[in-house]
Amino acid sequence: MPTNLLLRASAITKSFAGVHALKGVSFELAEGEVHALVGENGAGKSTFTRIVTGALKADSGELEICGQKIAHHSPQQARALGVAAIHQQPLLFPHLTVAENIALSLENGEPGWSVNWKRRYEQARELLHRVGVDLDPKRLAGSLSMAEQQIVEIAKAIGAQAKILLMDEPTALLTDREVDQLFRLIGQFRQEGVGMVYISHRLEEIQKIADRITVLRDGRTIACKDAADVDRGGLIELMVGRSLASIFPKRDVTLGETALEVRNLNNPRLGLHDISFSVKRGEILGMAGLVGSGRTELARTLFGLSSCSSPIYLNGKPVRIGSPAQAIGMGMGYLPEDRRQHGLILEMQLDENISMASLNEVSRWGMVQRGKEARQGEEYVRELRIKANTASVAAQTLSGGNQQKVALARWLAIHPQIMILDEPTQGVDVGSKSEIHELIVQMAERGVAILLISSELPEVLGMCDRIAVFRDRTIAGTLLRDEATQAGIMALAFGHADPLLQEAEQA
Amino acid sequence: MNPRIREAGLLLTIVALMLLLAWRTTGFFSAANLTDLFLANMPVMMIAVGMMMVILTGEIDISVGSIFAISSVVMGKCASTGVPIWLSGLIACAVGVLLGALNGRLIAYVRIPSIVATLATMVALRDGLRWYTQGSWIQGLPAGFQWFGMSQSGFTGLCVVAVVLITGLTALGLRNLRMGRAIVATGSNRMAACAAGIDARRVVFGVFAVTGGLAGLSAVLNSVRFNQIPSNSGLGLELKVIAAVAVGGAAITGGSATMTGTVLGVILLSCIGSALTFLGINAYWEKAIQGGIILIAVAADTLKLQRRDHAKTLPA
Ligand SMILES: Nc1ncnc2c1ncn2[C@@H]1O[C@H](COP(=O)(O)OP(=O)(O)OP(=O)(O)O)[C@@H](O)[C@H]1O
Ligand SMILES: [Mg+2]
Description:
The complex is a heterodimer.
Chain A (H helix, E strand, L loop, with lengths): L4 E12 L2 E12 L3 E5 L6 H8 L7 E6 L2 E3 L4 H6 L2 E4 L11 H9 L10 H15 L14 H14 L4 E5 L7 H17 L2 E5 L3 H7 L2 E6 L2 E7 L5 H9 L17 E10 L4 E9 L3 E6 L5 H8 L9 E3 L2 E3 L4 H6 L2 E4 L3 H5 L6 H6 L7 E2 L2 E2 L1 H14 L16 H13 L5 E5 L7 H16 L3 E5 L3 H7 L2 E6 L2 E7 L5 H9 L4 H8 L1
Helix pairs in contact in A: 3-4, 3-5, 4-5
Chain B lengths: L2 H22 L6 H26 L7 H17 L4 H25 L4 H20 L18 H25 L1 H11 L1 H6 L4 H24 L13 H11 L11 H20 L4 H31 L3
Helix pairs in contact in B: 1-11, 1-12, 2-6, 2-9, 2-10, 2-11, 3-4, 3-5, 3-9, 4-9, 6-7, 7-9, 10-11, 11-12
Bound molecules: adenosine-5'-triphosphate (ATP) and magnesium ion.
């Protein structure tokens, strides 16, 4: 099938200080092809893309880009060869505007003294428009939500007019609308002959757009198949080496008293207005909505990260929560969506990260008992199947999905009464995802009230007792588990029935 | 960067310097000279412990020299007006803590950047002191003032114990106390630390107050070495302290520093000056050579870092 090869890699190896991340990866990418790269957390997908973009140097193996043998190249050279990438972790300059961030990656060594601001803004606006998002290019990158940052990364990559486009979990935080738009762009690029590497843990996406699928396991290429030849189950078996029942483990739980309630909550600073809802003990309340609809903002307000004058009722009593420390003291936990900025301290060890919010449980007289802490860390590493040699390695040496599991472990360790989970399974592989779902259900069975924010509709539909749908920074409506459908949620999220989606459902 | 490599580089440099001194000079290793060297640099060591914690949280304190001067003068004034010496010492330490707490308040709660806030307090305190003393030294200190009324060797022993206790306990505390964990977490990623329930403002306030206290304590111990107290002591002390901590491998962006590195940094900086004098090196060259030695000591890990940079700092 491959007509014109854009990228050919064979027997690539790479190790980091004793960890063998890649042990012989072979990969080919043809013109106009979408080649999916799948594998469990820590299989080596991101490491491979970083080698292609020149950010890392392979230990051994051959790399050919557009027929040119490459011994070792810098990111600049890779860009000159027509390689562009969307990285798993958005990396923008927080003090520059969206337009400047985009321009910085595009106007490379352009002659001339002065900056053409008008052109910069126009270019940024046009690229964002192509991604289908209406984002002000004058906003500072630091003020964007994670999903918005991811969109800017996508805009940067499509503006590069690359011949080879590497996408490392571009949709981890995006909702269906943005994903659809991205797929339309991918279709366009395919027509233009761009070769694309697509990494994702959302297998439905892969089956929708991939032409070929390469499976990595433990740093090795296990299989490379035409997408038409494998089904979902077969793919999972190739990835994890065993088959999985992939239904959501949601079980019915008898609900207790109301644990958390807000009435007409307003937070002008974050634009939230007139939000009312309640959650009972043992209940899982889902929060759905488009990117920027106010779900994360609500979570931050509840957890005391943004001050707000409206009271919050905990077990029927009005309280004011002024800081995360207070919130934790009242039995609340919050897994943030942004694990790099708000979630983890990347330089610190796994066990230190895990015990951070519950230090009183592993310390006595103000002294941290390091043995106890390490044991707790090892326990969670085992239970959540975090891929790490020991719990005493720095969090930054883990792959994205494994970092996410460490962030989750911290909040499991505080044994909360109310748990706010913001995209708990982002970047997590299918196997671990159902394990995390199981943990969430077990928490509910223990009587924890859970708020589950997720951009993945099947997850919300499969896990929640009720679903609050957000639109324009307030709750547009709440659906019960039995009455909720994908179309129903999207209709509320858009404020009108979405014609595209109805079409898709009918088809 | 790997702190072990930096520490090894510093240790090797210090050993090389010592060997050179043993080979080319006489007198450097005499008890009198070593005692003198230790007592003269004791304030740097004590304040460096606090400064290391300040830098760990990602802040900086350039007012320590001024706090040191004020505490010295308070100590002298109290003692010369008849306050018991131990009480004078206590008052001087308390003044240090208070001034440090003022810095902490401005930085943590009023949210003035630490370099601006401590620059302001540095200048204001120094000028206030100059106006108050009119530049005159404090004299007429009571009989039991010098050496706290002890023998010189007894006093030196006391200082050694104090320095060992302060560095040792701080090192242990940073590793094992919840507060120590909070300091490192705040310096590494302040937002993440807050989101995990750490009160970063209290942490920052605390390290500035402690640093002020250490400046006060070292001023007390330093002032009793003489029978009069200058009103402009501690000029340039902040630079010496910050240089020692930085040479010791602390990341000026916060989150990473070791006590071993800091101690070695202080030792290296304190020995170089004196060593060059003993080696009879022309005073014109002294500063240049000092700079050169520091560069060599820290180059080891910087070179290593450059090679790894590529792999480490790019996005995953
Ligand atoms: N800088 C590093 N130092 C040490 N080990 C590393 C480093 N970067 C990656 N690794 C290791 O290499 C392996 C592969 O990581 P990689 O990020 O490529 O996984 P991935 O397939 O992208 O996983 P995910 O789906 O979780 O993003 C992991 O075991 C990880 O711990
Ligand atoms: Mg990855």
